[in-house]
Amino acid sequence: MAVQRKALARRVKPALDLTPRHLWLASLGLLEAAYRLAVRAAHCTGIRIDHALADARYAARRSEARLDGVRGRVTARISRRG
After folding, report:
1. Whole domain around residue 53: which residue ranges?
2. What is the pTM of this model?
């Protein structure tokens, strides 16, 4: 004699009804994500500004060195002629 199993009734999941609490928590999550992105963007911008300042300082030092070399040559020529 075979034992027959009863057909299990399929449980239907109730649709997720949105309550104000769900909406509030979702909006808090979105605000937190936006805040983290803004902080990360500000940090990256700060790094880029630091790199740009370093590049500008390097270019200024290089141009000063070139000018010093030109000044040395000019004063040497003037002293030879003068």
Report:
1. 34-82
2. 0.53
